[in-house]
Design goal:
Strand content: 35-45%
Number of helices: 7
CATH class of the largest domain: Mainly Beta
CATH topology of the largest domain: Pdz3 Domain
Number of strands: 21
CATH architecture of the largest domain: Roll
Number of domains: 4
Mean pLDDT: 83
Distance between the termini: 54 Å
Radius of gyration: 24 Å
Order of helices and strands: HHHEEEEEEEEEEEEEHEEHEHEEHEEE
Strand order of the largest sheet: 1-2-3-6-5-4
CATH superfamily of the largest domain: PDZ domain
Oligomer: single chain
Length: 375
């Protein structure tokens, strides 16, 4: 059933709009709106302000969207030949020239140029590639840039309006597409250049993402970046994915504080426990991280030579807490581990064979060989 606004609210909204329009002096618009029925007027007002909010959001964020040109350099005796390999999108996140984008677009080459809003071209260096997520940080030597505001992707709701901005097909600059949040915490296998990666905790949206748009921002109507576009399902229409911005924040914060990023590594395979898995496995808890075999049944929940192995963790252990933080849908194990750097000592609360145990683990540095998109 279609919901309608109460008449008193409709009248209030109408009055506010008409006063605003009179101040601005677009009287023809006011006259048209006033002739409409009260409910129709209220709905027209809502649409008007939503359109204004969307246009303002795009105008604001566009100043922070950059084009990335990826090239492969070949050196000969006398010169260096540069061949363009692709284009992508990025978003400025600091006034000093820090740019967030996808990691997979940077694996195509070894030379990068950035074109900012005023068409100035900068050479760029890769400062960080995350081994955990399809994310990377580029740095350009620039000052006074307009950084985008990062929003709260954990607060997203199904049906919420979102906008994607990117360099579609590397040709159509700052293409804006509109859609809604179609799903949350999605998983998808994405590939590029012959390498494949299992992406998890994704935002699904019907806002179109095109080749060349990878690494661009997914924003809300307040102009806040809530995701980084990363993949599209080419076998279906209107199924596109973005990494939620909260997955990038630990990397950004550590880098800005220390100038480096060495993500911590525990070395376990797990599935998050919910009510369904609790009943299926006859567990006493409906939360936590249950250690189990990997997809290929190569490892029994624990990777060899890992911090988890050194600490004596076992298959079928249920990790309930890390440093007192409960592991649940709001705080997945991977997100908690991301908050720490390598060589940090953490405390685990574990359920094993009917009893609870405490284990101290010194987190290791993420092994490069485990990065699925490592060149």
């Amino acid at each position: 059933m279609k919901k309608v606004l109460p008449k008193n609210l409709a009248s209030l909204l109408l009055t506010i709009l008409i006063l605003f329009l009179i101040i601005q002096n677009p009287l023809p618009i006011a006259k048209v709106l006033y002739k409409l029925a009260p409910i129709a007027r209220a709905e027209e007002i809502i649409r008007y302000f939503e359109e204004e909010a969307i246009m303002d959001a795009v105008e604001t964020v566009n100043k922070s969207v950059v084009e990335i040109i990826v090239s492969q350099e070949t050196k000969t005796e006398n010169l260096t030949i540069s061949q363009e390999k692709g284009k992508a999108t990025g978003i400025i996140i600091s006034k000093e020239g820090l740019i967030l984008t996808n990691k997979h677009v940077l694996n195509k080459g070894n030379a990068y140029k950035i074109i900012v809003n005023d068409k100035t071209v900068f050479g760029a260096e890769i400062d960080v590639k995350s081994p955990i997520n399809d994310l990377a940080l580029l740095k350009i030597d620039a000052k006074g840039l307009m950084p985008a505001k990062l929003g709260d992707s954990k607060a997203l709701k199904l049906g919420q309006t979102v906008l994607a901005i990117g360099y579609a097909k590397g040709e159509f600059s700052k293409t804006v597409t509109r859609g809604v949040v179609s799903g949350l915490t999605r998983a998808f296998v994405a590939g590029d250049n012959g390498k494949w990666e299992q992406l998890t905790d994704l935002i699904q949206t019907d806002a179109m993402i095109n080749n060349g748009s990878s690494g661009g921002p997914l924003i809300n109507i307040k102009g806040e970046v809530i995701g980084i576009t990363t993949a599209m399902d080419e076998s279906a229409r209107a199924i596109n994915f973005a990494l939620p911005i909260h997955r990038a924040k630990p990397m950004i914060e550590f880098y800005q504080k220390t100038g480096r990023y060495e993500p911590a590594w525990l070395g376990v395979y797990y599935v998050p426990v919910n009510d369904e898995l609790k009943n299926q496995l006859n567990l006493p808890y409906n939360y936590g991280a249950y250690l189990t075999n990997d997809e290929d049944n190569k490892y029994n929940g624990i990777l060899p030579n890992s911090p988890a192995e050194s600490a004596g963790l076992q298959k079928d252990d249920l990790i309930l807490e890390i440093n007192g933080i409960k592991i649940d849908e709001n705080n997945p194990l991977a997100d908690i581990i991301q908050k720490y750097q390598a060589n940090t000592l953490i405390s685990l609360r574990i359920y094993r064979n009917g009893i609870q145990l405490s284990k101290n683990v010194t987190l290791g540095k993420w092994p490069e060989e485990l990065d699925p998109l490592k060149p």
